[in-house]
């Protein structure tokens, strides 16, 4: 069963949170940011080409134009493949682990899977980012030597940066599944 | 508790039978390795499993039953399958059944001695058996050694499948009492090329070892250890590179089989790196010798050396005049300038003496490019060092003079203030000097102080030239280092067979149906290219800056000689 709700990100752009429950111990939470707008793409391309024409008019060298086209193409490919994140999702499978996926605009997906034995907890933390204080969700990893210690903090939803109301929804969903592992009998 | 069943996707269309695999009780998961079909004799199955267990050291056992009915469910078959649970007693007994072509299977568990008879949730995870068997899991680089016993759950699964290789050696064409289905049951894979290579590698290795022992015997002979020659060998970077490559060849040609993954990858990387190096070297050689380019190169070498010498002479004339408007001390200026000019004159004469032989020397030296591109680059770096030897000499003269001056000045400055350096206590103490000592000291101090700008200017100019040459040589060595240490085999493996180098796994949720167990697909998450290079980098005799920026500046200011690139074998002073 799937449901979708609209929220705002920390910088004010609209984002959508989609929750899917696959089974009693498996949930998928996906935050989708806005797609690449044709407006901004055309604006950027026109700016670059106007600058190239200006340079061409000054220097009379046609290499400037070919270089501008080349730069636009390469820059677009790099932006779509390495920078623009369309969707960030969290798949929580009780007793297996937590999987964090980022899907880029070109279709590339980069995934990390964290086993349940390494996860200590999922919490909402505050951070100072530029001139703002924002909330972010993170996974705390267990330190193998020290049962009370934390070895690493993995922040989630870094590019879409949802606000606190969205984060609370995600937090509640995660905690429902994480609690199941505490009520289940502990295995050695 | 949740029960996880890892099912190989190759067995999805297998006929009915019993499931064999490994039960990992700490994680409440069952890794299914194969399906044994009817008809079978339970005693023979138990015998076979006992043998497999002995050979692979993996506790393989019968885990449950699998029924693939093309028509509707047959009641008698299901009872028969339950009875099997009593013959091969395993706790818990897993029953998976598939109807027709449906994707959604029903899975149930029989627990005879269950303490809490609650409904357990079952997760069905499909995995590609061949890929999981061949892949090598790379743990994150910051795991400590004691995590070995607290090994991650995934590595247990990868381990189980990898070690059960002998189970996958029987295919369906073998005549035997047991009929299995696994990823190789349609026919065992083998490659003729690999088998041929394995056969030829042993005599090739022996031949190579013999040749290498001859070469290293010659290298270690006493003749080459006399003082001038050994000094020369240690200074030339070509000899170091050749020694490095010799070491690599010794690693490849050793008879011992590689113990683990790391050693195997290292051998393969060295082999591919050597191959590509020699191929590029031969390419370069063929390009150089075509159209007699080597001859042209030799012809332009002398004019270039002459040109450099002329530029240096112009520079010295400029310094002897009024460089940048500064006023130099006339006498000292003339002395230093004439000294350096005579030095350049000597150098040019020597070069002109050598000029008829240059072409022949270059021709034969160019032949050694067939040993590899790295050797050719090292030879280039050595030629640059030899051609700019006079710049090095000037730098040493200027630095020594400047250094002497600075030390003299600092010592006389202390005398000027009435202090002295106490060598015993390593500190500055006050001291009472006689009048004549003070008089001479102050006089010398004044002379040195006013001659400082001239010496400092010469030192500055020659230091800058020397730094330029050092930077050029450093860039060439960086390139050589790159070619030496890049793990090409691992990168090509990551490109073509990315499942072999795994950083982890990723799960994909497949279509679900209510009432049926959760279906997931486990895929291999390959290691990133940066991770591959970091894990499998070949060690080199790397040259990296010896000093930090601060100490380098301090040395420059005091006039100490700098050798910016440190070699691994050098002792620290």
TrEMBL record, chain A:
Pathway(s) it belongs to: Glycolipid biosynthesis; glycosylphosphatidylinositol-anchor biosynthesis
Transmembrane segments: 41-58, 64-83
Phosphatidylinositol N-acetylglucosaminyltransferase subunit H conserved domain ranges (all copies): 89-158
Coiled-coil residue windows: none
Keywords assigned: Membrane, Transferase, Transmembrane, Transmembrane helix
Biological process annotations from GO: GPI anchor biosynthetic process
Keyword Chaperone: no
Protein name: PIGH acetylglucosaminyltransferase
InterPro entries recorded: PIG-H (IPR044215), PIGH-H_dom (IPR019328)
GO MF, one example: transferase activity
Domain of life assignment: Eukaryota
Keyword Transmembrane: yes
Pfam families tied to this protein: PIG-H
GO cellular component: glycosylphosphatidylinositol-N-acetylglucosaminyltransferase (GPI-GnT) complex
Protein family per UniProt: Belongs to the PIGH family.
UniProtKB/TrEMBL annotation, chain B:
GO terms for cellular component: endoplasmic reticulum; membrane
The keyword Nucleus is annotated on this UniProt entry: no
Signal sequence bounds: none
Residue stretches spanning the membrane: 201-219, 270-289, 335-354, 361-388, 394-416, 437-461, 467-492
Keywords noted in UniProt: Membrane, Transferase, Transmembrane, Transmembrane helix
One protein family per Pfam: Gpi1
GO function terms (MF aspect): transferase activity
InterPro entries referenced in this protein's UniProt entry, alphabetically: PigQ/GPI1
Descriptive protein name: PIGQ acetylglucosaminyltransferase
Organism: Ploceus nigricollis
Taxonomic path: Eukaryota, Metazoa, Chordata, Craniata, Vertebrata
């Amino acid at each position: 069963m799937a449901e979708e709700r609209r929220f705002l990100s920390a910088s004010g752009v609209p984002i959508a949170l989609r929750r899917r429950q696959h089974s009693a111990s498996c949930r998928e939470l996906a935050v989708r940011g806005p797609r690449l707008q044709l407006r901004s793409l055309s604006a950027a391309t026109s700016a670059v080409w106007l600058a190239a024409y200006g340079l061409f008019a000054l220097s009379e060298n046609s290499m400037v134009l070919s270089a501008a086209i080349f730069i636009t193409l390469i820059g677009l490919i790099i932006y779509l493949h390495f920078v623009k994140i369309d969707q960030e999702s969290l798949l929580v499978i009780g007793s297996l682990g937590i999987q964090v996926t980022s899907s880029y605009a070109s279709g590339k997906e980069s995934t990390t899977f964290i086993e349940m034995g390494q996860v200590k907890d999922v919490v909402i933390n505050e951070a100072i980012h530029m001139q703002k204080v924002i909330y972010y969700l993170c996974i705390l990893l267990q330190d193998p030597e020290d049962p009370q210690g934390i070895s690493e903090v993995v922040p989630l939803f870094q590019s879409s940066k949802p606000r606190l109301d969205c984060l609370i929804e995600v937090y509640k969903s995660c905690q429902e599944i994480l609690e199941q592992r505490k009520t289940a009998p502990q295995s050695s | 508790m949740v029960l996880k069943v890892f099912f190989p996707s190759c067995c999805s269309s297998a006929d009915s039978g019993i499931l064999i695999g490994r039960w990992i009780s700490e994680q409440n998961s069952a890794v299914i390795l194969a399906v044994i079909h009817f008809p079978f004799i339970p005693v023979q199955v138990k015998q076979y499993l006992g043998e497999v267990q002995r050979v692979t050291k993996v506790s393989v056992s019968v885990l449950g039953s699998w029924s693939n009915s093309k028509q509707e469910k047959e009641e008698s078959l299901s009872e028969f399958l339950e009875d099997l649970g009593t013959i091969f007693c395993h706790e818990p007994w897993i029953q998976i059944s598939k109807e027709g072509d449906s994707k959604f299977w029903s899975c149930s568990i029989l627990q005879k001695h269950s303490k809490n008879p609650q409904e357990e949730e079952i997760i069905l995870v499909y995995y590609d058996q061949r890929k999981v068997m061949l892949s090598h899991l790379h743990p994150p680089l910051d795991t400590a050694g004691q995590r070995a016993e607290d090994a991650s759950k995934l590595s247990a699964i990868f381990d189980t499948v990898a070690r059960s290789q002998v189970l996958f050696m029987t295919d369906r064409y073998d005549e035997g009492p047991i009929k299995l289905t696994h990823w190789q049951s349609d026919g065992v894979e083998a490659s003729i090329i690999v088998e041929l290579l394995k056969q030829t590698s042993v005599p090739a290795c022996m031949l190579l070892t013999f040749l290498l022992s001859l070469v290293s015997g010659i290298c270690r002979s006493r003749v080459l250890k006399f003082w001038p020659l050994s000094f020369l060998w240690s200074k030339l970077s070509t000899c170091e590179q050749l020694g490095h490559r010799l070491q690599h060849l010794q690693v490849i040609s050793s008879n011992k089989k590689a113990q683990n993954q790391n050693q195997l990858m290292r051998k393969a990387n060295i082999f591919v790196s050597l191959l590509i190096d020699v191929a590029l070297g031969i390419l370069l050689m063929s390009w150089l010798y075509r159209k007699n380019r080597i001859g042209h190169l030799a012809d332009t070498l002398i004019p270039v050396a002459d040109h450099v010498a002329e530029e240096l002479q112009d520079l010295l004339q400029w310094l002897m005049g009024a460089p940048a408007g500064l006023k130099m001390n006339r006498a000292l200026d003339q002395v230093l300038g004439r000294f350096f000019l005579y030095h350049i004159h000597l150098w040019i004469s020597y070069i002109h003496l050598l000029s008829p032989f240059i072409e022949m020397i270059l021709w034969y030296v160019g032949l050694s490019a067939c040993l590899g591109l790295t050797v050719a680059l090292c030879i280039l770096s050595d030629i640059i060092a030899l051609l700019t030897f006079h710049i090095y000499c000037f730098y040493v003269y200027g630095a020594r003079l400047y250094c002497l001056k600075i030390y003299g000045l600092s010592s006389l400055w202390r005398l000027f203030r009435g202090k002295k350096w106490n060598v015993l206590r390593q500190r500055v103490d006050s001291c009472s000097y006689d009048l004549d000592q003070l008089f001479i000291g102050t006089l010398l101090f004044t002379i040195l102080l006013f001659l400082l700008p001239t010496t400092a200017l010469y030192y500055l100019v020659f230091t800058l030239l020397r730094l330029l040459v050092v930077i050029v040589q450093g860039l060439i060595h960086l390139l050589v280092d790159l070619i030496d240490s890049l793990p090409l085999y691992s990168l090509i493996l990551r490109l073509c067979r990315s499942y072999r180098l795994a950083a982890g796994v990723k799960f994909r949720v497949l279509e679900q149906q209510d009432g049926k167990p959760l279906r997931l697909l486990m895929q291999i998450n390959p290691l990133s290219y940066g991770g591959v290079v970091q894990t499998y980098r070949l060690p080199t005799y790397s040259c990296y800056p010896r000093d930090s920026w601060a100490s380098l500046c301090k040395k420059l200011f005091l006039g100490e000689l700098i050798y910016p690139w440190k070699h691994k074998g050098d002792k620290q002073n």
